[in-house]
Structures are given as C-alpha cells and as structure tokens.
C-alpha cells in the first residue's frame, strides 16, 4: 500500500503549496542538497532506442513518479515498465528501466536509466516530465562524468580516457582510450607520486631528527637514489616521440610534389571520395585541402597542397608558400613525382625529391614515402629500371603507383602503415603513453623541479625538499589528486551533455 501522500500525487491531485514543499522534502531531501540531474545520454535524432539518465538523490523518487509504482525495480536489473507523465498520468511509452542505487553506479550517486523508443516526441515528453519534478534539472555538459570524478569513481586520466573513447574513430584510438580509461596511465603517475612522497618523508625525517643519533645514516642517500630513478623514468616517458598524442589527435600526412604529379588524385584515392579538384591544368590546387582517413586503424589527417613550382601568378605563389608551410608541420611526407620524368634515365629522382623536401634535405627529420605516380603510362621494361634505381642509395621507401588504375596502392598502404605503426606504437604494448599536451606540460614542470632539487640538495635541504613537494604537486595535477577547478573545467568542457 502506498502512503497517502503518494496516492494523492498519483491520482493527479495537486497538494497545497505547503504540503507540496513538505512532500518534496520527504521525497527529494532537504533544500541545499545536491540537485538531481537528467539528460538524454544516447545520440540526438530519431533512433530505435533512446537512453535517458538521471543522477542524484531524487533519482529513486523520479523513477517512482514516472513508472507510477512505489516499488523500485531490483538494483541493476532491466525491468519493463509503463512510463507516464506524473502530472497527467498519460502514458508516454512502455520502456525498460534500470535502477542503480549509489554508491554502485557510474556517478556514485543514486542513478536511473530509462530506455524508451527513440522518437523525438517520446524523448521530449519524458524529458519534460522529468523537468517538472521537484529537485530535478537538466544536466550540464559532462556533468555525469564530473560527479563520477568528484565522488572518487574516476581519476582525471580515466576521465580523459572516457572522453577519448567517446570520440575514438579508429581501432588504435579505441585501444589507447580503453587502456587509459582502465586507469593504467593514472596508476603509473600515482606510483611516481607515492615514490616522491616516500623520498620526501625520508628527507623531512632527516631534517627534523638528524641531530638525534637514532636516525640511520643512509636515509638521505636512499631518498636521493629514489629521486634519480624517478627522474630517469619520467624522462623516458616524455621521450616517446609524442606517440600517444599523435594517436589521439591523428598523424599529419602531407602530400607534396610538383604540379600535375597527381597529388590531388592521390588524396581522392586515399579518401575514397572526390575531395579535391583534379584537372590536367598545372596549378589546379591552391589552398591546402584536408581529409581525415583511417589507415590500418590509425587516424590520419591528409593534406593535399599546391604543386611546387616557380610562378608569376600571385595566387599560386600564395598556394606554394602555404604548401611549404604545411610541409614543415608534417609528421610524414608523401612526396609525389611523375614516374615518366625519370625514364629511361632515372638519375635525377633524388634531385627532384630534394626540390620537394624542406631545406632540400633528403635526411630531413620527418619520415617520407616517395610515390612515383602515373605508372600506367610507363613503357614495358621501364618499371624495372625505376624500381632498380630506387632500391639503391639515399631514397626513402618508394612505390610505383597509378592513381588511374589503382596499381601499387597496396604497397603504398603498407609503407604508410609501417610508418604509422612506428610513429604511434602499439597502444596495447609497453607502458601506457601520455596522450595529452596537458600531461606533457605537468611532467616537464615536474622534471624541472627535480632538476632544482639536485642543485639545492648539497646547499639547503629545506629548499631541496620544497622542490620535491612541487614536483609531486605537478604529478598530482595530472591525476587530479590536487583539486584544481580550472583543470577540471578544461577537461569536462569537451564532454557532451548526458556523459
Ligand atoms: N594516366 C594517369 N593520369 C593521372 C594519374 N594520376 C593523375 N593523373 C592525371 O594527371 C592530371 C593531374 O592530376 P592532379 O591530381 O590534378 O595533379 P596535382 O598534382 O594535384 O596537380 P596540381 O594541383 O595542379 O599541382 C589529371 O589530368 C589526372 O587525371 C595516373 O596515375 N595516371
Ligand atoms: K592539376
Ligand atoms: Mg592538385
């Protein structure tokens, strides 16, 4: 049997304001307690099933109001219920409901989920009904995740991993995000933080008690050794060629070469759609044309650029200077040359490649793949001459390609994949990579503090200990153990509503 007040609410009778306030306090807790938030957690637009989530102390009451049943479903079990508008008792849908009493929920608070039919009218009907319940309000972007963090359910690096998982577009990105979300990166930083704490404790003990004889001699040496080991580890972690960040943000591959080599044709071939204009007119491409593609599970941002040549045309000159600029930002260069230019005399390939690469340097720090395009136009026997020439000497990995017939595309893809693998690493192997510029910033500051610790340690132990404390603070900012609202806002801003 329901309590009398409940029966009144369910009968659609509105209680007096005073009684309503009392009722609301009984059901939803006293004012000043945390709001209960709700949002559509699945994607927007028409879909088969939409998931609406609530989190906060009034979640249970909201579920009771919407299902019209006093009895809450068993925890974490999916139950079919009629979902109704509490004020009019009108049926909005029949759907699945799940009750997650805190602390065993995503946010750590009482949570509920309503799985309803994904039509816009059903979804807006349920959202409006929720909005009319006392103590409930629509969630802000990332608020569910923020509450999970504040209730200790997730560390900051895990939160970032979750955000990356939501945005992951390729398999390698997904693997890296899952690993970070599972807490591996966070645990690494926490271990470092603990080691610093230990070293700091030893130093402080020495500072405070070294007058007494009962302190071991080796305490300071031990702390110093621990700091040095840590320093090496942090340095190694930072010198990872930005693999985690590259995998997260995409590898920048720049297509460059002389006019009419087939650069735009190659962009279109790799993108599998006509992204850029292709024409027999030399100097067709002027702006940098970008296209995001997935190559072997790695995210790649391809840039097609203006053909490199000396020209009187002011617009084309601007195109060429943009191409040069983009080349300087490349992670990998795809240099495209027309194969026919180098037969039967293949001697000047290196010369032509130098004209493409920055500073005319074949040993430039950025990896390069050489594409000899329009292989379909080669005469019999010329392929062998070219391939033979490319295997010798200073040239980067080379492939003969025809954008027209598709010949050679498999070899090009495998050359590219090899470069990407080397650059991004295997996200499942080895120690986890740092994935954000934010991590790099704090780790660099941490190293700087450790460096100052070394300068101070023989002069002033108190100052040296202070630097260890600062180093630990920098690590803490990565995992969120130091409560800094500004870092939180930066991270949660990237989340969408309902996450
Ligand atoms: N036969 C043959 N023609 C090709 C091939 N690739 C491109 N072409 C042709 O070569 C011409 C130039 O191709 P684009 O892709 O516009 O060359 P581009 O390097 O982007 O040229 P610009 O933007 O002007 O520097 C077009 O007519 C293409 O159809 C190929 O593999 N074989
Ligand atoms: K062209
Ligand atoms: Mg072009």
Would you write up a description of this structure?
The protein has helices spanning 4-10, 17-28, 59-67, 120-132, 143-150, 156-167, 171-181, 184-209, 219-238, 243-249, 263-271, 314-328, 349-354, 382-391, 409-424, 437-457, 461-479, 485-493, and strands at residues 36-40, 47-55, 79-84, 91-100, 111-118, 136-138, 251-256, 289-295, 298-304, 332-338, 368-373, 398-400. By secondary structure, the chain is α/β, with parallel strands linked by helices. The protein folds into three domains: 4-139, Gyrase A, domain 2 (2-Layer Sandwich); 184-240 and 434-493, tRNA modification GTPase MnmE domain 2 (Four Helix Bundle (Hemerythrin (Met), subunit A), Up-down Bundle), CATH 1.20.120; 246-424, P-loop containing nucleotide triphosphate hydrolases (Rossmann fold). The strands form two sheets. It has a six-stranded mixed β-sheet. Strands 8-9-7-10-11-12 form a six-stranded mixed β-sheet, sandwiched between helices. Residues 1-17 and 27-32 have low confidence and may be disordered. GO terms for molecular function: GTP binding; GTPase activity. This is 5-taurinomethyluridine-[tRNA] synthase subunit GTPB3, mitochondrial. It catalyses: GTP + H2O = GDP + phosphate + H(+).
Unreliable segments of 5+ consecutive residues: 1-17, 27-32
List the total number of helices.
Answer: 18
Calculate Rg over CA atoms.
Answer: 31 Å
- State the end-to-end CA separation: 37 Å
Keywords: GTP-binding, Hydrolase, Mitochondrion, Nucleotide-binding, Transit peptide, tRNA processing
GO molecular function, one term: GTP binding
Protein name: 5-taurinomethyluridine-[tRNA] synthase subunit GTPB3, mitochondrial
Subcellular location: Mitochondrion
């Amino acid at each position: 049997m329901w309590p009398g007040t409940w029966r009144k609410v369910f009968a659609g009778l509105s209680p007096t304001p005073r009684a309503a306030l009392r009722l609301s306090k009984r059901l939803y807790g006293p004012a000043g307690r945390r709001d209960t938030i709700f949002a559509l957690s699945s994607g927007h637009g028409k879909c088969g099933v939409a998931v609406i989530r609530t989190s906060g102390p009034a979640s249970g009451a909201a579920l009771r109001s919407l299902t019209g049943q006093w009895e809450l479903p068993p925890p974490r079990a999916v139950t079919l219920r009629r979902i109704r508008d509490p004020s009019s008792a009108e049926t909005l849908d029949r759907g699945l409901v799940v009750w997650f009493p805190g602390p065993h929920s995503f946010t750590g608070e009482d949570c509920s989920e309503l799985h309803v039919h994904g039509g816009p009218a059903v979804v807006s009907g349920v959202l409006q009904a929720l909005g009319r319940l006392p103590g409930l309000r629509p969630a802000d972007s990332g608020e569910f995740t923020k509450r999970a963090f504040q209730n200790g359910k997730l560390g900051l690096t895990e939160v970032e991993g979750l955000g990356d998982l939501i945005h992951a577009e390729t398999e390698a990105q997904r693997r890296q995000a899952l690993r970070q979300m599972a807490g591996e990166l966070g645990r690494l930083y926490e271990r470092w933080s603990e080691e610093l704490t230990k070293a700091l404790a030893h130093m402080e003990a020495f500072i405070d008690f070294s007058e007494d004889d009962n302190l071991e001699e080796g305490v300071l040496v031990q702390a110093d050794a621990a700091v040095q080991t840590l320093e090496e580890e942090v340095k190694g972690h930072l010198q990872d060629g930005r693999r985690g960040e590259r995998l997260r943000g995409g590898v920048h591959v720049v297509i460059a070469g002389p006019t009419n080599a087939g650069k735009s044709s190659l962009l279109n071939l790799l993108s599998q759609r006509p992204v850029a204009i292709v024409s027999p007119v030399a100097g067709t491409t002027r702006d940098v044309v970008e296209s995001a593609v997935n190559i072997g599970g790695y995210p790649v941002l391809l840039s097609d650029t203006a053909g490199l040549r000396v020209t009187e045309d002011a617009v084309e000159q601007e195109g060429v200077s943009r191409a040069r600029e983009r080349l300087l930002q490349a992670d990998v260069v795809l240099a495209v040359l027309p194969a026919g230019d180098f037969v039967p005399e293949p001697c000047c390939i290196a010369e032509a490649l130098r004209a493409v690469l920055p500073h005319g340097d074949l040993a430039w720090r950025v990896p390069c793949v050489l594409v000899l395009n329009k292989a379909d136009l080669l005469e019999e026997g010329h392929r062998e001459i070219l391939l033979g020439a490319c295997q010798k000497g200073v040239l980067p990995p080379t492939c003969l390609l025809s954008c027209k017939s598709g010949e050679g595309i498999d070899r090009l893809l495998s050359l590219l994949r090899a470069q990407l693998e080397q650059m991004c690493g295997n996200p499942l192997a080895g120690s986890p990579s740092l994935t954000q510029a934010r991590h790099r910033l704090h780790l660099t500051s941490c190293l700087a503090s450790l460096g100052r610790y070394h300068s101070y340690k023989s002069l002033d132990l108190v100052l040296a200990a202070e630097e260890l404390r600062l180093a630990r603070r920098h690590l803490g900012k990565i995992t969120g153990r130091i409560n800094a609202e500004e870092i939180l806002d930066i991270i949660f801003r990237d989340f969408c509503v309902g996450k």
